[in-house]
Automatic annotation (TrEMBL):
Alphabetized SUPFAM superfamilies for the sequence: S-adenosyl-L-methionine-dependent methyltransferases (SSF53335)
GO BP, one annotated term: methylation
Gene Ontology CC, one term: cytoplasm
Identification of the protein by name: Putative methyltransferase-domain-containing protein
Record flagged with keyword Methyltransferase: yes
Annotated keywords: Methyltransferase, Transferase
Coiled coil region boundaries: none
Length: 359
């Protein structure tokens, strides 16, 4: 019995949630009648729990949590045990996890884990054509032991990634040189290098430990740091506010001056904004035609206003892009909270006529 397209789409969304380590309470499960179908149970085992097939599985504690919810749903859905039964493979996976030395919830939360973020692509008629996936090794705790927020992926990066994989975004970055400020886990740089056909990209961060983590994530996604034909993606340290040497830029970063500068969740701290805008000015000095894309989670309106005013003082023009977050109940990958506003701004140095959405 084949799985119908509607159920297949539901299962694909569930799979994306699972590998992104979304809390199981937020999973978009198929209904009980669907989930007990033998072919659906087989699909769930093959695509979520068969460790012989899965290259970067979630932590065992998380697998156990999801399996317990799944088995409970299956037990609830079965009215006649003689007609319906729970997959032996799923029960074996549950027993294996119960029997292993699964770390506690608190210990598991402090450990690095594989997280896969997936952007489903569609044809014009709305059918899914392919997926753009990026797998990262990241810390799930909010603040890592080294005192940085750069070792996990935040919602602004996920929204900016969604823009970059849209038709407008792909047309903007294809064949271009990109530079990312405050790259964190490196998700945007890896996404651009792996799927979007950029000619080169540098993922930069001010924390050396974060830069090392980005290098790991570049390797995890099959991207070569030292490709003899020309490096497509690199990780490098860059402290905001420090001068950039135009004469040695290519030697320092492995590519010529960028066409596009990216920054996701880089405006959250009022005290670093002067240094951030100073670095933006340095990049505009390298290339006056530079375009900057900044995606900001507006946690504090005064802080973001301070960023806007600093840009204006430096002769930058800000344009709000019409690319709002997808409401949480409609998201099918990647998944992120939308309770706090998230906005994407295009920043240029030229000053054309103002429009209602411009500063």
């Amino acid at each position: 019995m084949e799985i119908d397209p509607g159920t297949q789409s539901q299962l694909a969304t569930l799979q994306r949630q699972y590998f992104q380590l979304v809390d199981p309470s937020k999973f978009k499960w198929p209904n009980d009648e669907t989930i007990k179908i033998p072919t659906v149970q087989a699909w769930l085992f093959d695509n979520l729990f068969d460790l012989e097939k899965i290259q970067s599985p979630p932590p065992e504690r998380y697998q156990l949590r999801v399996l317990k919810v799944l088995i409970a749903r299956l037990e609830r859905s079965i009215n006649d045990p003689e007609e319906d039964e729970i997959s032996d493979d799923l029960m074996s996976a549950l027993s294996s996890l119960w029997g292993s030395n699964v770390p506690s919830e608190s210990t598991s939360a402090q450990q690095k884990a594989f997280v896969t973020y997936t952007y489903p692509l569609r044809h014009n008629e709305g059918l899914i054509a392919d997926d753009y996936a990026v797998t990262l090794l990241e810390s799930r705790s909010v603040i890592s032991a080294s005192g940085t927020t750069g070792l996990r992926t935040w919602e602004a990066a996920l929204l900016l990634g969604a823009y970059l994989v849209s038709e407008n975004g792909r047309n903007l970055v294809h064949g271009k040189r990109l530079f990312e400020l405050g790259a964190g886990t490196g998700i945007l740089s890896v996404l651009c290098a792996k799927h979007l056909g950029v000619s080169g990209i540098v993922a930069s961060d001010g924390d050396e430990a974060v830069v090392d983590a980005i290098k790991t994530n570049i390797f995890l996604n099959g991207l070569d740091l030292d490709d003899s034909s020309g490096t497509i993606v690199r990780a490098a340290a860059l402290k905001w506010g420090r001068p950039i040497d135009a004469s040695t830029f290519a030697e320092d970063y492995g590519m010529e001056a960028p066409d596009i500068l990216l920054g996701a969740d880089v405006t959250y701290d009022r005290f670093v904004i002067p240094a951030l805008v100073s670095s933006m000015r340095e990049f505009f000095d390298l290339n006056s035609a530079l375009q900057v894309l900044v995606c900001a989670t507006i946690r504090n309106e005064q802080t973001f206003e301070a960023f806007c005013h600093a840009c204006k003082r430096n002769g930058f023009r800000l344009e709000l892009l019409d690319f709002p977050p997808v409401p949480e109940h409609l998201q099918d990958g990647p998944f992120y909270p939308t309770s706090t506003p998230i906005q994407i701004w295009r920043i240029t140095r030229s000053l054309p006529a103002q429009n209602p959405f411009s500063y």
